[in-house]
Amino acid sequence: METINFEIVSSNSSVEWTGRKVTGAHNGTIGIKNGNFIFNDGKINGGNIVIDTTSIKILDVTDPATNTQFAGHLASDDFFSIEKFPTAVFDILSVKEISSSTYYLEGNLTIKDITHSAGFEAEVKNDSNSISFAGKLIIDRTKYDIKFRSGNFFKDLGDTLIYNDFELDFNITAEAAFSGQSRN
Q1: pLDDT band at 183 (very low <50, low <70, confident <90, very high)
Q2: Does residue 154 surpass a pLDDT of 70?
Q3: CB 53 within 8 A of CB 71
Q4: Which of 101, 104, 111, 133 has its CA 20 to 30 A from that of 125?
Q5: Residues 92, 105: contact at Cβ < 8 Å?
Q6: Is the dihedral angle over the CA atoms 93, 95, 107, 12 positive or is it negative?
Q7: How far apart are CA 16 and CA 142, in angstroms?
């Protein structure tokens, strides 16, 4: 069985986030610190994605002062507590092949040192020395102690309510780090 480890190329990878509220949505980007995908016999079999929460950016708020204030709020304990928790991690525990290039990945997502199972469908294109990976993970933020303006925890929020689910759209490039034979 041939095993190949593909290391994520952070500079060629991105994560776009979207959070919705009653009156609209906000979106931005967040960086990937590092990670890898393990392939056995040409099929994804495991790995992890380490997200750099300190790199969160807001794209839809163009006023510099408002953007800075909003970014500070996302960094605070109301949201991601980035000073205490500078990374979030998705560890792939199981993989189901849907087609030759589509997989359903299940694993543990850890945000703010709180871990829950999560899963999502991903499109993976494998070119022997590199792969491209794209998928969308939908997360219920309240499971990770991000309760600010959640209707589950606060009443009478009206049009200030923020929906619990947010999305992470992954577009990742990874390159083969080494290959070798493993023995069964």
Answers
A1: very low
A2: no
A3: no
A4: 111
A5: yes
A6: positive
A7: 20
**Contact between 15 and 32 (Cβ < 8 Å):** yes
Q: 116 to each of 40, 83, 91, 162, how far by Cα in Å?
A: 26, 21, 11, 21
Tokens found for residue 68: 């800075």
pLDDT grade, residue 162 (50/70/90)? Answer: low
Q: Which tokens hold the place of 103?
A: 């997989």
CA angle 169, 120, 99 (to 5 degrees): 110
Which homologous superfamily is 2-181 in? Lipid/polyisoprenoid-binding, YceI-like (2.40.128.110)
Round to whole Å and give the CA distance between 56 and 59: 10
Q: Is-contact 87 50, C-beta < 8 A?
A: yes
Q: To 10 degrees, the CA torsion angle through 106, 52, 30, 139?
A: 30
Kindly tell me the burial class for residue 117, based on how many C-beta atoms sit within 10 Å of its own C-beta (0-12, 13-18, 19 or more): exposed
Q: How many CB atoms lie within 10 A of CB 31?
A: 17
